[in-house]
Structure formats: C-alpha cells, structure tokens
Amino acid sequence: MPIEILMPALSPTMTEGNLAKWLKKEGDEVRSGDVLAEIETDKATMEVEAVDDGTIGKILVPEGAQGIKVNAPIALLLGEGEEASALTSLAATAPEPPPAAPSRQQQERSPARDVTLEGAPPPASAPTGQRGDGRIFASPLARRMAQHAGLDLAAIRGSGPQGRIVKADIDAALSAARGVPAAPVPQAAAPGPAVTPSRPLVPPAAPALSKERVAALAGNPPYTERPLNAMRRVIARRLTESKQTIPHFYLTIDCEIDALLKIRAELNAKSEAYRISVNDFVIRAAALALRRVPAANASWSDDAILLWDTVDIAVAVALDDGLITPIVKAADRKGLAAIANETKDLVERSRAGKLKLKEFQGGTFSISNLGMYGVRDFAAVINPPHGGILAVGAGEQRPVVKDGALTVATVMSCTLSCDHRAVDGAVGAQFLAAFKRLVEDPLTMLL
Amino acid sequence: MAETSFDLIVLGGGPGGYVAAIRAAQLGMKTALVEREHLGGICLNWGCIPTKALLRSSEIHHLLHRLEEFGFSAKDIRFDAGKVVARSRAIAKQLSNGVAYLLRKNQVIVFDGHGRLAGKGRLAVEKNGQPVAELTAEHIVLATGARARSLPGLEPDGDRVWTYKEAMVPMAIPHSLLVVGSGAIGIEFASFYHDMGAEVTVVEVLDRVLPVEDEEISAFARKSFEKQGLRIQTGAMVAALERTDKSVTARIEGGGQGSELEVERVILAVGIVGNFEDIGLENTGVAVEKSHVIVDEWLRTGEPGVYAIGDLVGPPWLAHKASHEGVVCIERIAGVNDVHPLNIRNIPACTYCRPQVASVGLTEKAARDAGYELKIGHFPFIGNGKAIALGEPEGMIKTVFDSKTGELLGAHMIGAEVTELIQGYTIAKTLETTEADLIRTIFPHPTLSETMHEAVLDAYGRAIHF
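^ inputs. structure came back:
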C-alpha cells in the first residue's frame, strides 16, 4: 500500500502552508531522513523528511502550490517492491474526498444524526490541545511524559479525540527533537531511553520581527523590500539556531604559502586537465589534518560525541541571492586534481541551481574562503551539525621575522570556529597545527 | 425491481458488516447490505451469542452441583440437552431478527444472496446460482468474516469430528470429548462440555493453554481446569483420527511420545481462515496474504473504493474489533472529523470458560520484549470480600505498568465475571490514564472490581488487602 506523505505542521498554530520546492521528483528513490520538499508558511520554512524508505510514486501537490491544509497528502511513497500500479488505488482516494453528496436527502434524517456529515467545517479551534479558554487538553500519560521530558504542552499539536494531546504526540515531539522521524504508528515505537533535552524543545516565543516593527525600530526610513525565498529562510533559521545553540570559540593561525603557490604554478603548468586553486590546496590540507586529528572531525549530539569515519568537506559557495555549501566527499582520499575538478563542477552547478540534494546536505566540516575579496581574516558561523568551520583569508605579502631578521612572505590567515561541546581548544589547536604543516610543506600533501 | 444504485455496499452481515451499514446509513449514505446466510453473522448465529447461552446452562449445571454449599438440597438433577440447545438457538434467532429490524429502521436495503465484486464499483449478487441483482456503489466494504481452519488428516465430518458449528447443537452430551486447540473457542467448548458432565481432554500444540494470554494467566487457568478434572496435554499434536461407528481414536504425539485416546466426539478449534475466496477479488488490486485481506489503517484495500474489515483482515478475530473497524472505515469515507485508527493495544479480549479470562494490552512478556521496564501488580480473588461471598474465590488480576511513565500497558484477569470487568481497564487505557488516576479512582465496595484497584496498588507496593 503506498504511503501518504502529509503536509506537516511547522508550528502549533499552522493550519496551512505553501509547497515552496520539491527536492525529489516522481520516480526518485528516497531513504528515511531524506529531505523531500520545502514547506513555507508566513512564519517559517521547513524541510519535509521521508519517514520511510521507498520511491516517490506520485507528487500530488505541485511546487509553488499555496494554502495546502495541514495533514493533506502531498505525495505518495511506494514501499519496497511496490509497483506503480499500487498508486491507482490511492491516487483516486487521496486526498480523501468525502463521498459525493449522499443521494438520500438529509432532511429525511433525524437532525441529530447529520451533525458530523461532510461539509461540516473542521472545528475552528486552534489545532493544539489548547482551546479558547487556555485550558490544555492532554491525556494524563501525555502530561506526565511531557513533564519528564521538559516539553511545553502548549506548543504541541494534539492528534487525539477533539485535538487532545496523547502519547503519540509526545513521542512525535521527542522524536522530532532528536532529529529522528517519528514512528508513524505509535505501537511500533519501542520505548527508548527517556530523553531529557538540555534545553526547552520549543524556543521561547520571540516577538515576531514584522517588517513594520523593524522599520519602526529604524525610524521608518524609506526602504525597498526583497521578498524572502526559501533559501534565505533556511539560512536565517539555521544560522540563528547555530549562533544561539552552539558555543562557538575561535582560533587563528597564519600560514606561509609561498611554497604552496610555487608548487601550484608548477602543477598547473603540467596539464590542461585541471586547474588547482589555492582553495583546493586548503580543502586537501584541511581534510588530511582532520584525518590526523580525528577528534576535530566530530559533531555533538545529546547522547554522545560522534566522531565521523569519513571526511566530507562542505565548501561555502556564494550565490547571487544567498549561499550554498556543496560537499567534497571523502576529501582526504582525493588528490588535488580530483578535488579541483570536483569543486569546479560543484561550484558551476551550484550557481546554475542544479545541485542534487545529497550534494549539499550533510558533510562533517566546512570551509569558507573570502580571500578572493581581500578579506584578511574573519570568523565563520558553524554549519550544524558540523563541529567546526575554517574561515580562510587572503594570501598577502606581509613582513615576517625569520631567524631574527625581517623578511617578506605570502601569508594566509585561517580562523577555525569550533563547537566547544564537541571540540576543545587543544584539539582545535592540534588541527590547525597539522593544517599549517601541510600548507607550509605542500609536498607532504601530495603523498 | 429493487433499487440497485447505492452510495455504499457492505458485503457480509456479521458484527463488522451490519454495524458498518448502520453507521453509513446514519451518516446519510444510501446503503445496501448483502448477506448469503443470516444477519448477525457467525458471532450472533454460530459464535459469541449462542455459546454464551450454552455456557449459562453449564454454569447453572455446575451450581446445581454445589447447592449444599449455599444451603440447598436437591435430588435427581437432570437436564435435557435438546432444551439447552433449543434455548441457545432461540436466542440466536431473536438477535438475528433484531439485526434485521435495526437495518430496516436505518433504511439499509438487505440483499439475500452471495455477492461478488464485478468490476469497478459493482457487486453482483446471486442466490442458488441465479443472479439476484447487480449493484453499484462508489464504496464497497468487504466484511465476509472467517471460518474454522481444518488441518490435513483432521478434517471435520459433522458427525464424530465437529467444528464449532456442530459443537453448538449437540443431540446429546458425549461421554468423552477431545478438544483440539486451546484458544478461546476450544477452551469455551471444553469448559461447557466438562461442566455438562463430559470427560474432556484438551490437546494444545503450544506449551500452554490460552496461548495468547499472559503466561501467569495461562498457568492459573490450567491449574484451575485440571483441578476441575479437565485433562490437558500441551506441547502435543493430534497426528491422526481414526473413526469407527461408535468412537474416534486419536493418535496424540508430544514430547517424543505417542499415545492413543478413544473418545466419542472430537471438536476442532485450531484457528480460523479468512473468507476471501469467491468474492471476486481476482483481477482487482485487493491483496490477500495468508487468507487475510491487506488494508491500511483506514481499512482501505489496494483497490480504490474497496475496503475490508473484521475477521477478513486478520487478528484479533473479535466481533467488537470488527464493529469498531466498520465504524472507523465508514466515518473516514464520510469525511467525519476526528476519526482515529483503531489501536490494537486497546482491544479487550474475553474467554467465557470457568473461570473466565479477560485481558487488554500487552502481556508481561510482550512488554519486556518491547523493551519496557515494568511495574507488575497482582491481586488474588481470595483477598476480595465479594468474591468470597459469591463462592468464587478463585481468580487473579495482574497489571503491567511502564515504570518510567506509569502507562498501563496491559491488564490480565481470570476469575468470576472478569469479562464484565475488563472494560474498566480498557477505558483507562483508551484515555491514557496512568497509575495515579487509577489509584485515585474510588471503586465501590463490595464488588469484584475492587480487585482491579488493588492490582494497581500492588504494582506500586501499596495493596491494602493482601
């Protein structure tokens, strides 16, 4: 039986939203956790993740569609081994249409009977367990589970009778907080260890930054509006979350790159098949340094620090209207020419908007390079769930002291931002030292 | 010519089908119901209800043999098996007529015949090989139920080797009886015939009787049955049945040993299979697995506009589960707000043997296997004043709580009238109460239900009367 993918509720009060973008198309294979689509409301943007493995059988709601009701089916997912023919069974019934007007006149029926018949509008009350008088309807079990987990019931949408908050809703909220898709059937979820998040799962309601309010705060000067697209909303959301939840600290190191520049010129003179940039050297050096200092290739989770087996480096690419971070996977295992060609291809396709989802989602570490703009050094914001990001400045001639004498060298300043929960200062310093050795003795990078 | 165009057709008039049809009619749908045999289905005609009537007779018979205990004396206690059966049949008939009345009152049109899907939105009805009608509807609900399973070599013959159907209308109570299978159906017949004076042997292939119940309840039940004089062999199989004019000889194998048992009759109660054949599922998207139709949480089959409910879609094979599925299915079709899929953990199950058995939710073992840490409560009927006053001190209540959340995961009961008590725990589970609410609840004194309160208290080390 095909699985219905439903319009999610991004917030307790959301009743409908827009389908900003499909990231998968019909026929695409998806795995549980893959992002399928981006949903927008007036307040937020969210990614819809696949809960099950399968193949996108049919997209029911096209990209750009507005005002889609929460819980309306937006696509059908075919399970393993399910044929597309299975779709015909559901496509006709989803979204669930009430039966065509019953042929028997309702007037014939006793009036009490037809109160819930089709055409009856959904209850006008808010979709949370909360009703007009502020009372929250929740089962005793749901209340206790929420209390244990530190969840605010007011922020949870009730799926029980009359919008009552039930156990399944708490399970779903806890799963969402852990970043795991909620099990669709409550009884299928084996009880795991009770999760007690270290922070409230729902951030305290900040006053909405309406444009009127912002303009008023600025003293109402004239302005031009640039509408927020999905990417801008994602940038805003993720980076705000990063700065609010990740304890950043910063380490800066200067690397002399004269030898690197020389080798780069020599390598590039040897063949037309590649053109290696300074940044490609930086990617390779960072990847090898992470391999040497595995503790820096790490992410924080509430359960454990995750030390990644692979080194997948996300490279920030500026776009006209935002930025995107395509990933050089297994960068420590790729030679400079391979990295050069891969980044060139990724950057070109980033700017053409042709990246596949898996090419820009994930990674274990990021690099942001503003050297080409003449920036000497800067500190970047960590791209969760990464444990660090390396901010690379311009290579410029600077006076340096060598053996007690003043001389000139080409120096590049790099600043590492670390998530202190996962990466301590000494680990960050070890990584930077390893990175510097590679950059300053680039032959070792060619091994 | 009768009307043939409907909003919804239900195929099968059992507790799933007729309830679905009535609910559909209540919601304003023009509804037809097709039934080939008798309204009310197996439940009402050949299952739940007539067996309860028989068991009432056997309970009275049992009490009549305990009269001195209550201060009576009587001589020459006899019964007429024909009258016992006649009472049971009359009750089934009365209720079947009641269903016909309810359907009529709700303006459901009933077609007498065998229905088969005949293309999209079409259902052909025939009777005795003659076409009766060709019905059309946007929605068709299959509710054809299930029937007794038969095993190779153990086929029923309607004479010496019975299914539930013959077992319900005996000409006389046999002197000796072999019951194959110790699920609810097998154990109820074993209990009935034993209390009516038969020598009964129960053979169960698994290692305990009532194998879906909690292990402690199974053990308690077995001890109780054996004390009454029932013979029980578990971990054993009936390998063959040899029939003669006067008796049946069963070869029983178990534990590496074989034995023979000669009995007057045999009842087969080895599970049931769905009635999925000959209802036109061929060339449709309806998927069938192990005789049961595959449906989603809203009872939709793989064929648009075709739904299936009740025993046809699989276990637990219980009338109240079928009825509830019928209501969920119909309300979902009608677009009623606030419809919720059935939660299998909240379906109570009752077995009307003596002592009765009832349960809801997870057994202790299932809960442990699911990874829960548990608090378990027990309370024996011997600690309950009403049970002793009734002369029914044999029984026990067991509660299973998640120790982390206080969720009532399961409740398991054995003893007098527990089938009437289990709804209390079922309401508690459906409302997601925790132990705190149950502890706070005031149970009336003196009642058997106080044992339910005590079993909750006991899980938290607070039982008062034991």
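Residues 171 and 308 of chain A are 28 Å apart (CA to CA). Residues 230-245 of chain A form the longest helix (16 residues).
thumbs up if we can close this ticket
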